Amino acid sequence: MVVKNVCCIGAGYVGGPTCSVIAWKCPDIKVHVVDKSEMRIKQWNSDKLPIYEPGLDDVVKECRGKNLFFSCDIEKGIKEADLIFISVNTPTKTFGIGKGRAADLKFVEACARKIAEVAEGHKIVVEKSTVPVRAAESISHILSANTRPDVSFQVLSNPEFLAEGTAVTNLLYPDRVLIGGEESAGGDEAVAELMWIYTHWVPKEKIVTTSTWSSELSKLASNAFLAQRVSSINAISAVCEATGADVSQVAAAVGLDSRIGPNFLQASVGFGGSCFQKDLLNLVYIAECLNLPEVAMYWQQVTDMNEYQRTRFAKRIVECLFNTVTDKTLAVFGFAFKKNTGDTRESPAIYVCSHLLEEGARLNIYDPKVEPKQIEHDLTSSSVTDDPERVQTLFSTYSDPYEAAKDAHAIVVLTDWDEFKNFDYKKMLDSMKRPAFIFDGRKMLDHSALIKLGFHTETVGKRF
Ligand code: NAD
Ligand code: UGA
After folding, report:
1. What is the pairing mode between strands 362-366 and 395-398?
2. Hey, which of 168, 185, 371, 380 would disulfide with 55, CB 3.0 to 4.6 Å?
3. What is the mean pLDDT of the chain?
4. Which of the four pLDDT bands, split at 50, 70 and 90, describes residue 149?
5. Can you tell me the distance from the alpha carbon of 388 to that of 121, in angstroms, rounded to the nearest whole number?
6. Where is the UDP-glucose/GDP-mannose dehydrogenase C-terminal domain (predicted)?
7. Ligand 1 in contact with 90 (CB < 6 A)?
8. pLDDT digits (tens, 9 = 90+) for 188-225
């Protein structure tokens, strides 16, 4: 078989960009991205895509309507495809056994059942969502239990390693593509088919094949290692603040060791994003279920440290503002979980803002990409406040950072958007209350210049 038709179930942050790049790089393949959300599909078919990713608009424009299609016709997508990616969300369970830790696989299972129900002929089913180890076994089980005589399946694991804000570049030049398959002739054949798709643009030596279970666990382990680096440097940042060392200098010195390397050592207000926390908790849950409590505790500490960092930063703001922020106005710069994305899932900004709102602060929030509605949703959600009406009266969103800073007692930087470096802080200072404070949760501004201007400056991992 040569793959001619690909279907991707789930038109989200992973399914959309991944399949757009596949369509762009493989003009000989028809790619159909399907989703149950009519709204999302409508946006994929419009000029304003549902997600912001640098470079993505051009790729979609180039292929949409030629060999890239977005629709809600899931059954048609499955029927026509030789290979189906499952790219749906796998959130943390919010109820029942494993609540707050285990991955909820109900959307993955729904896809497997839908595929079993409507598929005809032979299909390669590719698990692209991040899942617990051995999830592919459950998918295979559902598929085989529902198989009709003329239908057969091979299930592969092909986790995605793209990071938001750099998705297109990561997809075009991946560090590696990982494919896990069953160790059998049928498994090898399916792996070769998926490999063939990637070889359209990825050098062969970057495509790694493993067993299905190793592939699934490698994805969880990669995210756990990355998150652990951020928590490690953030733990060191607390020591720096207590001792007078500078975490940037420490990170640079540590990162020069070629065994450690310089990446992912940027101390911050904490990591956010839809996956680090979820995947760590998933790993913790798996370890607990496997009766490995020491392993579970080890990884749990990485998320505990992250929570500590966010809270520590929020408390420091209150302390510096003379132990009260009640009725004080704070301009918040950045609400997305990192720069170059409009995504706010698990953004540290949600937690820091909630803490400040709880203390009675008035927040003027500016983010270049996050929609005001999203900010409102995040700050009034029941997971962060039991008094949404009160919270609603305490914050406003702004499309102009200078307006946001007007009459404010402090500026709080929570996302590392490059544009924040180029603001006219003198102009802002002139419109602010005195003493004027800047709390740089991303260590990205020129602090000596700000101090010279007359700001009282605070940042992570350094005392002034
Ligand atoms: P997302 O929430 O942005 O998108 C998931 C989409 O799946 C939604 O549009 C939803 O409507 C759709 N969906 C859910 N169930 C469906 C069903 N039964 N039929 C049709 N559509 C359905 O999620 P995402 O951020 O793209 O993440 C998807 C998976 O990829 C997750 O497992 C995540 O852990 C993993 N992942 C995410 C990233 C990232 O940067 N966001 C990176 C690597 C891996
Ligand atoms: C992360 C991984 O980097 C991807 O490889 C993975 O595919 C993805 O999760 C996933 O599975 O969802 P992402 O969450 O999009 O990607 O973004 P990262 O660049 O990893 O940043 C995560 C968070 O850590 C952000 O809040 C970022 O600001 C923070 N961070 C990152 C730091 O605070 N310091 C650093 O040095 C690096």
Report:
1. parallel
2. 168
3. 97
4. confident
5. 52
6. 331-447
7. yes
8. 999 999 999 999 999 999 999 999 999 999 999 999 99
Q: Is the pLDDT of residue 139 over 80?
A: yes
pLDDT digits (tens, 9 = 90+) for 159-174: 999 999 999 999 999 9
Beta strands at 5-9 and 30-34: parallel, antiparallel or unpaired? parallel
88 among annotated binding-site residues: yes
CA angle 281, 285, 287 (to 5 degrees): 115
In the annotation, is 275 catalytic?
Answer: yes
Q: Provide the CB-side half-sphere exposure for 142 (13 A, CA).
A: 19
Catalytic member of 275, 289, 320, 353: 275
The structure's pTM equals: 0.97
Whole-number Cα distances in Å, 138 to 29, 71, 433: 29, 27, 59
Is position 151 annotated in a ligand binding site? no
Distance CA 453, CA 64 (A): 50
Residues belonging to the chain: 464
Q: How far is the CA of 274 from the centre of ligand 2 (A)?
A: 9
How far is ligand 1, taken at its centre, from the CA of residue 34, in Å?
12
Alpha-carbon dihedral angle through residues 255, 261, 266, 267, given to the nearest 10 degrees? -60
* Distance from the alpha carbon of residue 446 to the mean position of ligand 2, in angstroms: 24
- Tokens describing residue 193: 């088919």
DSSP secondary-structure letter at 445?
Answer: S
Averaged pLDDT, 398-410: 98
Atom of ligand 1 nearest to the CA of 14: 26
Which residue's alpha carbon is nearest to atom 24 within ligand 2?
A: 271
Two tokens at 201?
Answer: 């643009």
Please check if 13 is assigned to a binding site. Answer: yes
- Residue 208 host element (H or E): strand 207-211
What is the C-alpha to C-alpha distance for residues 364 and 396, in angstroms, rounded to an integer? Answer: 5
What are 39's strand-pairing partners? Answer: none
Q: How far is the CA of 233 from the centre of ligand 1 (A)?
A: 29
Q: DSSP alpha helices (H): ranges in 50-145? A: 56-63, 74-80, 106-118, 135-145
- For ligand 2, what atom is nearest to the CA of residue 415? 28
Contact yes or no for 374/345 (Cβ under 8 A)? no
Q: Is 89 annotated as a binding residue?
A: yes
439: pLDDT confidence band, cut at 50, 70 and 90? very high
Cis bond leading into 348, ω under 30°?
no
Tokens of 69: 């299609």
